[in-house]
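Researcher: I'd like a candidate sequence for this fold, 359 residues long. If you have to choose between options at a position, lean toward the conservative one.
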């Protein structure tokens, strides 16, 4: 099954190189008043935070507390509700996901088999929707806010507001930004064992070259694998991005820790950010950063050490659709995703819309 009709698919297909030289940014979901079962651009979204793609190339969107739903754009470009009743709560495990309730779904990850893993943040729980049956179940977290369970069964573990989740390239290890515990944790999906891979639970800036497990963190908001056995950590009020290498050593690669919007075109470790919320790895190994409070999407290149601006004017607003990405206003972008064909999608969360950069 394909998400888009041939004309739209042709529109969406471009090499990742074209993202740098993109010509325009367009609306692909949100901006309308329909609730569901209508073209995605005619539907109402409520705080879309995460967007990913299934193996069948279907777009899946999660809504934060404004909607508490999981949505899918089907082969005909129609928006469907696949999980959530739209009310806040915790219920539904063992039954159809459409009847479940959530409390702030920050992000999701798509397993190789198409199952959806959901960060049900304020329920302190990781949940899974079976791609075949549509049944939802709890995978990790006992629902109680706290820190416990490392080395033991995931179902008995405790989290404190898990935020971004990300699968490693094998699809067998899930990284979890456990922001309230100031830790990054890992779930082995085969053994269902949870462990900590960065952060000692204390608040602070980790020294460059230190052991990640023994280091403090400010507030790990997002995490993504680097493709080489390590991973990146984005700190929200820390206004910085750290890198943990395959040997477990941590260093700061983006940001001075100060709040600001400076540094584009220069060394990333001299740049400033403002409440960054999400990161994802592009196909060339660079990292895309949703610099939410600056209303920007930015790119860090580990090959050059530079940071550049990808989308947004830096001004909050709605203007600029159909024009150049750098001339389009955003309102707290909370997510950025690279589809399998290399094209870039942005969840412009407080404008309640999903945007796409096309050549």
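Model: Candidate sequence:
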């Amino acid at each position: 099954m394909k998400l888009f009709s041939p004309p739209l698919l042709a529109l969406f297909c471009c090499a990742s190189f074209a993202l740098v030289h993109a010509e325009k940014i367009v609306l692909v979901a949100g901006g309308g008043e329909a609730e569901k079962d209508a073209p995605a651009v005619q539907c109402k979204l409520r705080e879309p935070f995460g967007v990913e793609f299934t193996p069948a190339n279907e777009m899946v969107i999660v809504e934060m507390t404004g909607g508490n739903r999981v949505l899918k754009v089907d082969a005909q470009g129609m928006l469907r509700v696949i999980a959530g009743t739209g009310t806040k709560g915790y219920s539904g495990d063992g039954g159809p996901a459409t009847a479940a309730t959530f409390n702030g779904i920050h992000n999701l990850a798509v397993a190789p088999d198409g199952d959806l893993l959901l960060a049900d943040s304020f329920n302190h729980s990781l949940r899974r929707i079976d791609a075949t049956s549509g049944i939802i179940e709890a995978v990790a977290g006992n629902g109680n806010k706290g820190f416990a369970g490392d080395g033991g069964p995931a179902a008995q573990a405790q989290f404190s507001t898990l935020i971004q989740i990300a699968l490693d390239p094998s699809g067998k290890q899930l990284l979890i930004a456990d922001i309230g515990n100031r830790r990054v944790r890992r779930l082995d999906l085969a053994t269902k064992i949870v462990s900590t891979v960065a952060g000692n639970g204390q608040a602070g800036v980790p020294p460059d070259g230190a052991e990640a497990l023994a280091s403090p963190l400010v507030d790990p908001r997002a995490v993504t694998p680097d493709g080489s056995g390590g991973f990146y950590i984005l700190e929200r009020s820390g206004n910085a991005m750290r890198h943990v290498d395959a040997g477990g050593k941590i260093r700061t690669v983006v940001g001075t820790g100060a709040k600001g919007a400076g540094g584009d075109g220069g060394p990333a470790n001299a740049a400033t950010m403002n409440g960054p919320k999400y990161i994802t790895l592009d196909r060339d190994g660079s990292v895309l950063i949703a610099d939410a409070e600056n209303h920007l999407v930015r790119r860090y290149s580990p090959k050059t050490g530079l940071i550049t601006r990808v989308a947004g004017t830096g001004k909050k607003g709605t203007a600029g659709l159909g024009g150049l990405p750098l001339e389009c206003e955003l309102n707290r972008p909370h997510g950025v995703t690279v589809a399998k064909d290399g094209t870039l999608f942005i969840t412009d969360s407080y404008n309640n819309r999903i945007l796409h950069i096309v050549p």
